[in-house]
Amino acid sequence: MSFVVKMNGSQNNDIHGNFISGNGVHHVSVRTHVNVDPAKLKSLRQRWSVKPSEMSKKTLNPIRAIVDGMKLTPNPEKPMIALSIGDPTVFGNLPTDDTVLQAMKEAIDSHKYNGYAPSVGYQKSREVVADFYSCPEAPLDGKDVILTSGCSQAIELAISVLCNPGDNILVPRPGFSLYKTLAVSMGIQVKHYNLLPEKSWEIDLQHLESLIDDKTACLIVNNPSNPCGSVFSREHLHKILSVASRNCIPILADEIYGDMVFPGCDFQPLAPLSSDVPILSCGGLAKRWLVPGWRMGWILIHDRNDIFGTAIREGLVKLSQRILGPCTVVQGALESILNDTPPQFYQGTISFLKSNSEICYSELSTVPGLNPVMPSGAMYIMVGIEMEHFPDFQNDVEFTERLVTEQSVFCLPATAFEYPNFFRIVVTVPEEMMIEACIRIREFCARHYRPRSQDSHELDQ
């Protein structure tokens, strides 16, 4: 088979490297393989040995593993209500502020942010973040900030710089599944410490301390919490710091939901309370500014006693160089986003989340067999299931699966957070959708609830 290539210009090379002068036409012959010998192909494949890496085989997102295995067939007679996705932008009812959008437009129009930035971020942008979060008890400057591609990368870098394969980290249960996903993929053992629902999800400090050994490299504290929506008191945070201090364990503070707390409850960052424990605080724009897709996060390095020293800082810089940092346009807009966003924007978001949480808690707390735990912040509410009253289901996965099938309401089973017999509801949906979802959950529970039999009740006496 042949085709014709027309060559323009005074000097050209053909596809075989042959020199051609002037304008002309060159006939190129291309050999094509129409009939392929299967035996030769098999022999070729057998010579190759391309296998996935051990890291890729160890990487598992528990949420995806559970959800992908569920039989999710919504009731065709009822529109789907997804209360499972921790993305406040899904339904369009929680847009970011116009000031935030304008800052991005101006950064684009300036043409200043189209190239590569340093892997840790522009120095000016790092200083802006430092100024925003600095306080007398925990001062920060630009060198204490590493900009990252979202809070998820901040967490990954923090774990990577503190831990080696064979080490272990302490992770909350229930807790954000990414901690385990990242750690296990790196050959790091995960030890789960318990949170106590009867104490608004405070840490079981005795259990926490019992898990520490000479291989413990890091304690992860998520406050406010995903999936619990809890906010720790100053007193409780001091107790957590005491455990870390006694055992010389640094803390990774996941504070992405910081300041997303309801009126009457104060968020206290961990670092200003620490007198000696070094802390890597991870945050970002995603939740407070309602732009998770912009992928802008950061690590704040709090090390007033120079325990991390230069080695941890240098390690973070080196790790950040594996990719070329977060989006430069968002970095260019950071100063205006952080400093010019009006307080009423934050207040409006928090007011909405509190109202939806109260609606959800009020409706579900009167449903026999369910035990919601009222949150104090973030975007979630955890609901306990008294499984003994729902004999149709073996566990929370089956419960939530059938809830989709019968009522087209999708809540995330808390087995995904290492905490069975609960489910998590995201409260960012429009109010009328929240109310409708609660009505459907009530109907579902009424259909499947079974009171304890008289015989079992007498046995308990």
TrEMBL record:
Necessary cofactors: pyridoxal 5'-phosphate
Quote the InterPro entries the UniProt record gives: Aminotransferase_I/II_large (IPR004839), NHTrfase_class1_PyrdxlP-BS (IPR004838), TyrNic_aminoTrfase (IPR005958), Tyrosine_aminoTrfase (IPR005957)
Q: Which Pfam families does the UniProt entry name for this protein? A: Aminotran_1_2
Q: Where is the signal peptide?
A: none
Q: Does the keyword Transferase apply?
A: yes
Aminotransferase class I/classII large domain mapped to chain residues: 79-441
Instruction: Write out the catalysed reaction.
Output: L-tyrosine + 2-oxoglutarate = 3-(4-hydroxyphenyl)pyruvate + L-glutamate
Which pathway is this protein engaged in?
Amino-acid degradation; L-phenylalanine degradation; acetoacetate and fumarate from L-phenylalanine: step 2/6
Q: Tell me one GO biological process term.
A: L-tyrosine catabolic process
Which UniProt keywords are present, listed alphabetically? Aminotransferase, Phenylalanine catabolism, Pyridoxal phosphate, Transferase, Tyrosine catabolism
Q: Which family does it belong to?
A: Belongs to the class-I pyridoxal-phosphate-dependent aminotransferase family.
What this chain does, per the entry, is described as: Transaminase involved in tyrosine breakdown. Converts tyrosine to p-hydroxyphenylpyruvate.
List the protein's name.
Answer: Tyrosine aminotransferase
Instruction: Name the source organism.
Output: Cyprinus carpio carpio
